[in-house]
Amino acid sequence: MLLLALDTATPAVTVALHDGHDVIASSSQVDARRHGELLLPAIDRVLAEAGRTPDAVTGIVVGIGPGPYTGLRVGLMTADTLGLALGVPVHGVCTLDGLAYAADLQGPFVVATDARRKEVYWARYADSRTRLTDPAVDRPADIAEQVEGLPAVGAGALLYPEAFPKAHEPEHVSAAALARLAVERLAAGGELPAPRPLYLRRPDAQVPKNYKVVTPK
Q1: Distance CA 123, CA 132 (A)
Q2: Which residues contact 164 (CB under 8 A, 6 or more apart)?
Q3: Contact 111, 96 (CB under 8 A)
Q4: Any coiled-coil ranges, and where (predicted)?
Q5: Beta-strand pair 167-168/152-153
């Protein structure tokens, strides 16, 4: 096995290689505006660090969000394209699940990432491997009672301490955690989601309501 994992659902552009035993190379850069510019060089760098070539990859894991439309689609389109080019399966993993796995907390807690517009993408977890609720997007004040008293991880939790007073790192997801979680689930005979995006809301860029189509005479 040589699993290539990547995620662009948060400001982190993160890539890792897992050989079936452990992560053998990884890279993470935080830059919310350069996902498309940074991802392919990061993949090349990780492969070179591990001394592997693309044709050695046997599968791809990609974070499916939730996340902002522009950043999230960079990782998903890259994963789909590589999967087709290499003829290997592409698996999805919820980005929040990757953060929860990396946090390695026992007992109930919350994962929250920054959704912009003064909102967070979030979900509750029983432990680092078990999600209790579907991912959602809300204003922190609107969910304060639901998460009251619970530890929280992720950039969204750190950004709104009034709603998440017990917030701490990790701030962003790592592809290393995604890869380890995916390998663990596959080894247990579990199924991973299809690599389809969890947008949870419409993209910021939309066609104006009064847009008129001009047709030639």
Answers
A1: 7
A2: 110, 112, 140, 147, 152, 156, 157, 158
A3: yes
A4: none
A5: parallel
Whole-model pTM: value is 0.91
Q: Which residues pair with 59 in a beta bridge?
A: 3
Q: How far apart are alpha carbons 92 and 110 in whole angstroms? A: 21
Query: What is the C-alpha to C-alpha distance for residues 38 and 40, in angstroms, rounded to an integer?
Result: 6
The predicted-structure confidence for 11-58, as pLDDT tens digits, reads as follows 999 999 999 999 999 999 999 999 999 999 999 999 999 999 999 999
Look-up of token digits 């309501």:
209
Tell me the per-residue pLDDT of 160-199, one tens digit each, with 9 for 90 and over. 999 999 999 999 999 999 999 999 999 999 889 999 999 9
